[in-house]
């Protein structure tokens, strides 16, 4: 998936400035697609020159003007074409898994350091899971009251929650294994 597609989806859900898009990526889209502020602004500029988005200058009192982006008909058509293309399964690349396998060739001090790394990694994913669960309670308190777009957003979030839970279970298994070597 290209960053352009994630931006088009986000702007169709709600037009906004580059800053607002970056915040959405941090808050929700980042659950499945990450991008830096610089990447978002660079891609928005290219998308505007390609006619996929329009930008409107909006004056702000006491602050610099902001550019609010919205999707053009060409942008919507581009997204729809992409939505209808088949998706290939992603190849899994997991540095930590390679390190765990490599621990067979390290000494006890190295395995002790690896345990500390797995614990740190686990804490990060536990924090992510808690952030997802907080967002779910905040954004989707009543499944029966959701519109189509919200229901689709929620099912993506539930996938992120399930992934984080699976990863935490696996990390617990890794820690048990490493501690019993």
Short structural description:
With 181 residues, this protein is mainly α.
Fold and architecture overview:
The mean pLDDT is 92. Helix 1 (3-13) packs across helix 4 (73-83), helix 2 (18-27) packs across helix 3 (37-49) and helix 6 runs antiparallel to helix 7 (148-179). The chain has seven helices and three strands; from the N terminus they run H-E-H-H-E-E-H-H-H-H. The protein folds into two domains: 3-84, Arc Repressor Mutant, subunit A (Orthogonal Bundle); 95-180. It is mainly α and 181 residues long. The chain is elongated and about 60 Å long. The longest helix has 32 residues, at 108-139. The chain has a three-stranded antiparallel sheet with strand order 1-3-2. The protein has helices spanning 3-13, 18-27, 37-49, 73-83, 95-102, 108-139, 148-179, and strands at residues 16-17, 53-60, 63-71. The chain starts with a helix and ends with a helix. Residues 92-178 form the Transcription regulator PadR C-terminal domain. This is Putative PadR-like family transcriptional regulator. It holds the Pfam family Vir_act_alpha_C.
């Amino acid at each position: 998936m290209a960053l352009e597609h994630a931006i088009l989806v986000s702007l169709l859900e709600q037009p906004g400035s580059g800053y607002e898009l970056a915040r959405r990526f941090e808050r929700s889209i980042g659950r499945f697609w990450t991008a830096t502020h610089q990447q978002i602004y660079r891609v928005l500029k290219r998308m505007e020159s390609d006619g996929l988005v329009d930008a409107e200058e909006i004056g702000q009192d006491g602050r610099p003007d902001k550019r609010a982006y919205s999707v053009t008909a060409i942008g919507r058509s581009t997204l729809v074409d992409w939505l209808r293309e088949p998706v290939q399964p992603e190849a899994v690349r997991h540095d930590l898994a390679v390190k765990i396998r490599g621990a067979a060739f390290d000494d006890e001090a190295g395995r002790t350091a690896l345990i500390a790394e797995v614990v740190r990694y686990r804490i990060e994913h536990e924090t992510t899971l808690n952030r997802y669960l907080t967002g779910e309670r905040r954004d989707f308190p009543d499944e029966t009251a959701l519109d189509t777009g919200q229901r689709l957003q929620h099912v993506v979030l539930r996938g992120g929650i399930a992934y984080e839970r699976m990863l935490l279970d696996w990390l617990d298994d890794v820690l048990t294994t490493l501690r019993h070597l």
